[in-house]
Amino acid sequence: MKLRENFTQEVAASKSSISVSTAGRIEGNRHQPKKDNRGWRTREDPLEAIWDSVVLPLLKQDANISPVGVFDHLCDAHSDKFSSSSRRTPPVSGLLSPLKIIQ
To answer: What is the CA radius of gyration of the chain?
Structure first.
């Protein structure tokens, strides 16, 4: 904290937009411990059973298919495992509609 050279800890923390307790921890070289990346899955991979048999051939067949297109195909072909309600964005009705140009 360069500001600490000219200001009190409270002022330097405020100017740096951090709390006084965080400034004290940084100044005392007591940083937060780094999180370890876990080496295990928290849930089963839903694509594992169909990756080689469905997804890879679909990607090879159409190199320009979008991720949403792959997901929509999985929802249609494997509705028992994939639900369209799992999609995070609302579905687009049909393909992209052409833009209307107003002159």
So the answer is: 26
